[in-house]
Design goal:
The complex is a heterodimer of chains A (56) and B (421).
Chain A (H helix, E strand, L loop, with lengths): L1 H8 L3 E5 L2 H9 L3 E5 L9 H10 L1
Parallel strand pairs in A: 1-2
Chain B lengths: L2 H18 L2 E8 H4 L7 E4 L11 H13 L6 H9 L4 E4 L5 E2 L11 E7 L5 E5 L15 H29 L2 E2 H8 L11 H17 L4 H12 L6 H14 L9 E7 L2 E6 L7 E4 L4 E4 L12 E2 L3 H4 L14 H4 L3 H11 L3 E10 L5 E7 L1 H7 L4 E7 L7 E8 L2 H15 L2
Helix pairs in contact in B: 1-9, 3-5, 5-7, 6-7, 7-8, 13-14
The chains are: A alpha+beta (56), B alpha+beta (421).
Protein name (chain A): FdrA domain protein
Amino acid sequence: MSNARKLFDEDLKVINVGLKIFYEDLKRQGVRVVQVNYQPPPKLEKELKDKLSELL
Amino acid sequence: MSLKEQIEEANKKAVERMMEAEPYLVDTKLAKDAIPGFREDMLLHAGPPITWERASGPMKGAIIGALIYEGKASNEEEAIKLVERGEVILKPNHEVGSVGPMAGIVSANMPVYIIEDKKFGIRAFGNYNEGIGKVLRYGAYDKEVLSRLKWMRDELYPTMKAALDEARKDKGGINFKAIIQQALHMGDECHNRYVAATSKFMNEIAPYLVKADVPKDAFNRVWDFMKNNNFFTLNIGMASAKAMTLAAHNIKYSTIVTVLTRNGTDAGIWVSGLGNRWFTAPSPVPKGVFFPGFTQDDANPDLGDSSITETAGFGGFAMAAAPAVVSWVGGSVEFAVENTKNMYNITYAKHKYFTIPYLSFQGTPTGVDIRLVLKTGITPTINTGIAHKKAGVGQVGAGIVKFPFELFKDAFKAYVETYGA
């Protein structure tokens, strides 16, 4: 609990993964933030996914 | 050799050929005299195959305008009847080695550029650029549009022809790959920004215009037209890209995309190892910056063969080379850099000759691989012009658009069926 409280007392340093809107919002507020681009892999049917693994 | 190894070998060959092609602008002729198999009753159009019934507003507008330009109809009603009676053959540019931006309509008596690839001997064609705003390729066809097209045929075309005859005699034509290469170092990405490329081209063509001894009045009008149209060389760049991608096409086993295009209704792709088979999905509506008086609601789904530039490894894929392009298509400089970086995730190679100063002269992302699109879910992101959805209005803005994922999934399924993986 005390560690969590400490976290909120310190300056935030954020690594944002995925949706960029959170990165942009934090940046606008002067928070130190790094963006990591990520999107979940597409959903493929199992057969297609297997073929892709075989050929890539 | 396993199929995976065969793919690797084929893709290496395809992308190598794409990068090594040497497109030169060698000549210009009327479409009916330049493009093999062209017929008087034929209209070429952008994107995958389309019927009149399914065509969008700007595509219909451009078809109507071309039929009036050709003297086959004297007004809109006559033109529509002609098409509805089935007296006009609509054929995709890509199926005859040609390209045209937006509606991409090419009719028999429109002049086209002839590009010759000096390395592999392939020919490609592209129509002339009319400028921006109210123009045929965005679906406008009023008196101003038609009289400009007639001037282009009657004065611009013979002037260009005379200059290119001289350029061909002197040094085999104008090396347009070299112009793209230099323009990428001068702030163009060579899809939606052709400011530097057009200036370089004007420098190249000037001595041949003088040598051709064209009448002074014609010279002045042609020079002003080029000077006032920053997109003058877009169509030459596109036809050059078509020659490059044709060099990579029809390589057995290759999973590299050789056509990315849209007709205002559907988007479509070709894959090297699958020949001229179209894979299509509904064309998305671009998001962008609009001219005063227009909004996102006016935008038509995307159209044009101009994404052949991205297919060949420049255009939107080289946005990091062109920070100023974001003032035209929207987004931020940061986005421009990010888009180029993102496209490395779905491309086979970094271009050997097209490089980006801001990225430490790294080669542009080149050769979209359908397998990588399927693996990452990232699809080619391009920049584009935006046409009004109603026929007759013209260009209303410019923006950015992503190709639909389904195209690549369908192509991969067909690949697996074809090669029995």
